[in-house]
């Protein structure tokens, strides 16, 4: 195998057919690590807001660097694209499309990826990653399907009332692992649903999850509700799940 084949950054497009989504399909962008082989199975990150994670978060470039320069075990990254006009209805618990989206994700998308790509099939080797409402849908997926998902990377989670209600209604959450961070300049962020104090929302969700037995790494840092802040956090956020000294 040539050096170029080992070091090049490979991102492929993939379309998943769906019985649940009205559009009948959803597009993915998938990062394959250096030297990817079908005979090897890889840990996998499933990212909400896939286009943003790849373009603004630069997660494929960051992942490539961690694998090649920091000697991390190779992993696959799956970015699930979203129509921004439908994002709130799909990602927000209680939203009009939330149930069909989460069913698509768990019952169609993950099995389709596992059929077409060499990714591992256990909860301990799947990581859900999301920013803002993307973090909220990651938590919702895990609370609904603990058999599939028990690891979450949460960047400035938009944990509104329905998310809090979901978490309060959950039973014992031991075995659920999260890395959560929020920016200290996110105390009055304007959304299409009003102005919210994301620091308070994340503190409250952190306390609630810990009270139910979840294992949570929680951080508050100088930063705003934007990708410039979240991109800087990604190497630290990924390390407990995928780094050489992984804890989860």
UniProtKB/TrEMBL annotation:
SUPFAM superfamilies: alpha/beta-Hydrolases. This is Esterase family protein. It holds the Pfam family Esterase. The lineage of its organism: Bacteria, Bacillati, Bacillota, Bacilli, Bacillales. It comes from Cohnella candidum.
